Amino acid sequence: MFEYFPGNYIWNLGVVATLNSGGTIDEVDRACRPIRDAAARGDAGTADFMRAWQRIADQLEAQARAEEAAGHRRTAGQKYLRAAAYICQAERMQSASAPGRADIYRHCLDLMLRSFELSDPRTTRVEVPFEGSALPAYFTSASPHAPCMIMWNGLDSTKEHMYTSGWCHELAARGISTLMVDCPGSGEALRLRGLTARVETEQWAAACVDYLEARSDVDPARIGLVGWSLGGYYAPRAAAFEKRLSLVVAWGANHNWGEVQRRRLEREGENPVPHYWEHVLWVWGEPDVATFVRNAERITLDGVVEKITCPFLITHGQNDRQIPVAYAHRSYEQAVNSSRRDLRIFTPEEGATEHVGLDHLPHVGAYTADWIADRFAPL
Fold it and tell me: What is the Cα–Cα distance from 352 to 82, expressed in whole angstroms?
């Protein structure tokens, strides 16, 4: 993995994720160069990270406004989008209690919506009704009556990260629409609506399928689900019980996330974000670490993946420093009732070998999109 900040895995992961999600190397370098010393301060340096990346985002936003005033809609939309991408990557790493964090995220949402209006009219903001509230989402339409993939994020990503990865456009080029959802415990659902994560992910899977079945531009017989990072638990769990799903993908296996938490207490494995324990308590709505770790024992796919009957793809990086590659093999070995199960391990020689392939996101993304298109075709 490209390591701009030697020894700081979390910051480096943010850099490569940005470069593989529409960021330009010049803008990322101008954001990061002044904070190289701050990288050595770990969690204490994340406010510096936010300020540095916000400065570049502000420059882009000013440029976008000027382009928009000049009638250059596509150029303006592209700059609004990159500004949003930089903000959401930096916001992701802040403390849950950081002053102004909610306002920073709201501004990111505004930039995303403006970019859709100017340069991507096929993508719209939608709401998935859920238990008296709603799950905020983006829907990218491929064509009338198209198959659709529901896309879920993980512990610290958002629907904005999913969109800026460009994966929805890879699917659209293959005739597949995408519903990118902020699940309970993530993104806007957590930040602005207070919806926290839960073990029983089939509950919000049902809400997503209900929503898509009510749309006239979605083929209800071809609805699939993909989840990356912690979504590698969320998605297989949902597919085990929500039988309307035609296929499921674990974009990064997460077979026993509760066990991973115990190991992190023992300082085994890399954390995905600074302020890690504060972050997980926020996501799961738990009062303290001891309670969280005890309750996290239920976050496992043991005894669950056996119930998956649809096609099931598991991808994983051989050098994933957060989630052991052994979990990918465990999910594959236990999914004995899947109509078709496939396991794809990405090696250091080819790239996409880090967590969810963030070091080479287009590589794992294209493979996954092709697998999905191949499974939908006979249906």
Answer: 23
